UniProtKB/TrEMBL annotation:
Family matches, as InterPro entries: NAD(P)-bd_dom_sf (IPR036291), SDR_fam (IPR002347)
Name used for this protein in its record: Putative oxidoreductase
A molecular function (GO) term: oxidoreductase activity
Domain of life: Eukaryota
Segment forming the signal sequence: none
Keyword hit for NADP: yes
Alphabetical UniProt keywords: NADP, Oxidoreductase
Family per record: Belongs to the short-chain dehydrogenases/reductases (SDR) family.
Membrane-spanning parts: none
Pfam family, one: adh_short
Record has NADP as a keyword: yes
Source species: Erysiphe neolycopersici
Length: 333
């Protein structure tokens, strides 16, 4: 993979490097297609107790479930409807999951929209920020008690993996434009709005990791860039002439563009590679030892240190957390 050759990373193959997942319960948002589906499929082959995939479309879900079952007849996999742009839908999804399970080992915050037309979520937030960040924040908060309970059990390895993007570099100058988040932000380029939401994904994972670490939780939280993946995420890009031309050139050259299976490797690695110990993080070589560091942002595969300056702004991360928590507080019951 040229991306990995240029920017470093570790060797990773799904068949060899994903360990047995026996007893684990796994939740993947956006798990019905693209890298979400390609995350669910190899995990289903590793004997998990149950995999839950969420998305908006029942039709797409039925196809995904059938495909997984055809490859892994013994797989226990279920669909949970969830529209991340609607707090009530997120709440209902979490409630249904908690009615079924008392355990959660891996949470993939994978779903998202990219360069969408200006619009607002059901509760009135900029559509990309509301979907990519706020919806996932609410879902995580609702599932966190179960994640923590699971992490307290001996022999467990609980992780939260947030799918961000190198496109966080396109975020507006201040990073998060709090004063406009309850508008369509139509005066901003769609890529700027997308970059803002992807920056929020990284800041969220970092702040979550910090808060969990402060209370000695064993949960690991990281964010990743999957690579430039040729999936349905580009449906809006293809409608924009300039961006569409750039995408088609990339497709023809096949330089940085990955298929969905390759794109899933970054988050699969983050969810299953060995954890970094305290000794590892203090080592001079800790950035390249192939172990997962809590709170880190990784580019493919397992390569840290590619995040923009704003991702290291602890004050911004704290402000974003507090702002989001206030916005969703009425739905955390």
């Amino acid at each position: 993979m040229l991306y990995g050759m240029l920017f470093g990373g570790v060797s990773f193959t799904q068949e060899k490097d994903i360990p047995d997942q026996s007893e684990k319960v796994i939740f993947i948002t956006g798990g019905t297609r693209g890298i979400g589906y390609q995350t669910a499929l190899p995990l289903a082959k590793k004997n998990p107790a149950h995999i839950y995939i969420s998305a908006r479309s029942q039709t797409t879900a039925d196809k995904a479930l059938a495909n997984i079952k055809s490859e892994v007849p013994s797989a226990k996999v279920s669909f949970l409807p969830c529209d991340l742009a609607d707090f009530e839908s997120v709440q209902a999804c979490a409630r249904e999951f908690l009615n079924r399970e008392k355990r959660l080992d891996l949470l993939f915050l994978n779903a998202g929209i990219m360069v969408a037309p200006a619009g607002k979520t059901k509760q009135g937030y900029e559509i990309q920020f509301g979907t990519n960040h706020i919806g996932h924040f609410l879902l995580t908060k609702l599932l966190l008690p179960t994640l923590e309970q699971t992490a307290s059990r001996p022999g467990t390895d609980v992780r939260i993996v947030s799918v961000s993007s190198i496109a966080h570099y396109f975020a507006p100058g201040p990073g998060i434009v709090f004063s406009e988040l309850k508008t369509e932000m139509s005066s901003w380029l769609s890529m700027r709005r997308y970059g803002q939401s992807k920056l929020a994904n990284i800041l969220f994972a970092k702040q979550l990791a910090k808060q969990l670490n402060d209370k000695d939780s064993k949960i690991l939280a990281v964010s990743i860039h999957p690579g430039v993946v040729d999936t349905g995420l580009y449906e809006y890009v293809e409608k924009k002439p300039v961006l569409s031309v750039a995408l088609n050139i990339a497709r023809m050259m096949m330089i940085f563009l990955m298929n969905a299976k390759e794109g899933a490797n970054s988050q699969l690695w983050a969810a299953t590679a060995p954890r970094a110990t305290e000794k590892d993080t203090k080592s001079c070589c800790s950035k390249s030892n192939g172990k997962v560091v809590n709170g880190e942002f990784y580019t493919p595969i397992g390569s840290p240190g590619q995040a923009g300056k704003l991702t290291y702004n602890d004050g911004l991360a704290k402000k974003l957390w507090e702002w989001t928590e206030e916005e969703v507080k009425d739905y955390i019951v």
